[in-house]
């Protein structure tokens, strides 16, 4: 990972958060509220994604992580899942050039191997095309679950123990962190959840142990610069002690 995003370069006293993670909730409820098909709610949500990416550049946020599709979302209807996967791929194919022009590095996190081959190819292409960008690291979580992330990390460590590369006594927090999806970058400072729910929903459950949480009733398609600024200003007022006094 680029030096721009390395966690070792952190100064804990800063104006806005360096790493913002967002649980983008409310697309389907927005569609219902506006008497539209739920698929149109997802399309409207994509417009908000673009706005927040631009605002992250404006406010000099270094890392933006967006929860797009959880490992639990497979429980939705086949029709909705197919629509979402096609939408993901279409956006990747269309918007990657714009990300490159804006100097944004794209990383898809989650169990990518379970996605269809065509989408996997689009992900690989997009990541390769933007890998040398450094203004913003954009993580999109697709087929992601916090428990899966931790289990996957433990499996990698267990394999190295089996191969006698590591000893069980070598295991510590840093080692587990180093095998997670978001490794060796700025820690998550602020988690925003839209849509009025007050839970984490299996999102980055290891990485956000000391993150600040911000919940808003605003549905994701309606989330705008004012709402985003409110969340950032709320973060500024927090007294982050990290377990100290």
Can you characterise this structure?
With 245 residues, the chain is α/β, with parallel strands linked by helices. It has a single domain (15-145, 187-236), classed as 3-Layer(aba) Sandwich (Undecaprenyl pyrophosphate synthetase), CATH 3.40.1180. 41% of the residues lie in helices and 15% in strands. The chain is built from seven helices and six strands, in the order βααβαβαβααββα. The protein has a six-stranded parallel beta sheet, with helices on both faces. α4 links the parallel β3 and β4 (136-144). α3 runs parallel beside α4. The two termini are 33 Å apart.
CATH secondary-structure class: Alpha Beta
Please provide the ordered H/E string of secondary-structure elements: EHHEHEHEHHEEH
> How is the largest sheet built, in terms of strand order?
3-4-2-1-5-6
The helicity comes to 40-55%
**Structural class of the helix and strand makeup?**
alpha/beta
Q: Provide the CATH topology.
A: Undecaprenyl pyrophosphate synthetase
Q: Work out the helix count.
A: 7
Unreliable residue runs? 9-13
Based on CA inertia axes, which overall geometry fits? globular
Strand percentage, roughly?
Answer: 5-15%
Integer-rounded radius of gyration: 18 Å
Largest sheet: 6 strands, parallel
Please tell me the total number of domains.
Answer: 1
How many β-strand runs?
A: 6
Mean pLDDT: 93
**CATH architecture assignment name:** 3-Layer(aba) Sandwich
Task: Assign the CATH superfamily.
Answer: Decaprenyl diphosphate synthase-like
Distance between the termini: 33 Å
